[in-house]
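Form 7-S
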Amino acid sequence: MSTPWRDIAGTGIPANVQVPGAGHRQEGRQDGGSLPVLDSAPIRVLAEEAGPRAAEKFLEDYLGLLPARSAAIIDGLNSEDREKTLDALVSLGVSSAMAGASRVEDHARNLQRQVQSGHWPSATSAKALLSQAILQITDAAVSPGCPG
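Output:
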C-alpha cells in the first residue's frame, strides 16, 4: 500500500488524526463519537519499538482484515453463536486498540459486553455501527492530516 501521509517516524501514519475535543478515552460510551477515530500513539510506539515498516505493515494488515472481522461478528450475531461472536469481538477490540482505532475498539467492547450479558444485539444494527466506524478509520488512515 503506497501512502502519501508519512508523518509518524516514517510509518505513513498521520501524526494527529483525532476528533476535536477527544482528550481521553471514555470506555463504554454508547456512541463512541467523542473518541478519536485514529489515535496515533499506539502506532507511533510500535514504530519506535519495531521500526517504521513494521508499524506501517501492522496498520495495513489491520485495515485489510476489518471487513472479515466485521463479517465474522455479523455471522455470529445472526446465528446467535456466542463463542464465535465473542472471539470475533475480542479480536476486533484488541487489534483496534493496538492500531489506535478507538471508536472501532469502543464499539467492539460495547457489543462484547452485551453478548456476555446475554443480550443479542441486532445484527443489522451492529453491521451499520461497525460499517460506519470502519469507513471512518479507513478514511482517517488514507487521508493526509484528516481530522477524525
